[in-house]
């Protein structure tokens, strides 16, 4: 099988049966001489992949032929998103916003305004478990663009930046943004999902009805593969072993998918592991036993942000939140003997038994 790997998920496709090269070539030439344009009439999975947002992306769609022009549009779209929402690019829109003094209005692009507004909506719904102003704390713990640390910050250092953290300190009206404090906005927990959605919209605008888009493990699927099967997604088991193993497989179409986990991005000090997932309420990495959350939503941006929020909440609160909002969610909770699975009824219907 061919695995497209990422930090939390990988897509499984069937490997094509191999034929002797000479026979394949001769057969193809003979058939195409008889049927003009036969290759273009056969639907197949076309793929385009590369690097973006510090990770990989893969776009697969069902078509009769590859499309170089569409590949370029995909690449250009990803460049535009990065230039708008990256904290690693000094002259990105987001970097400019982060340097803008408190109280000074800044006009931003419609895409950035949309993501900021969606972020705030999810922050309100999750009572601050999702907070895109947590950036100063992320940086302090060594998980942002300032680089790694191997030692936990002192309480005085945490106190020094916590008064800048709070999603309500960033006001959005249309495309006008005003920070109430010297807030630092980090969209890493939603930008990849938004990028997936934007590429999905691009494909649909081109008349493509079946596709699978993935950026750094966040995905969106629509339609069916050429053989009529749904797209199959493997949820990774959060082991510490070098090899990557599968916990569950789901079959999906017409849905956005995101997984958040704390089992790969962390550092250790004196035997204590510090996760990259920061709780905005405490200013510290999460310390509960929830290790992985997979969320299915109509859009990948929503799934991306909610997966992060539920990682912050912990297993009990996250499951209750999912039940209350009737979400399709899969949780993996660490136990003394392994991992306990918890899933909502909505998620169960996607499982491949």
Can you characterise this structure?
With 353 residues, the protein is α+β, with helices and mostly antiparallel strands. The chain folds into two domains: 2-16 and 38-84 and 209-348, T-fold (Roll); 85-179, T-fold (Orthogonal Bundle), CATH 1.10.3980. The chain has helices at residues 21-34, 38-41, 68-85, 93-99, 110-125, 135-140, 155-162, 191-205, 300-313, 315-324, 345-348, and strands spanning 2-5, 9-13, 44-52, 55-63, 106-107, 170-173, 176-179, 211-215, 218-222, 231-236, 246-252, 255-261, 266-269, 272-275, 278-279, 284-285, 290-297, 328-334, 339-343. Strands 3-4-8-9-12-17-18-19 form an eight-stranded antiparallel β-sheet.
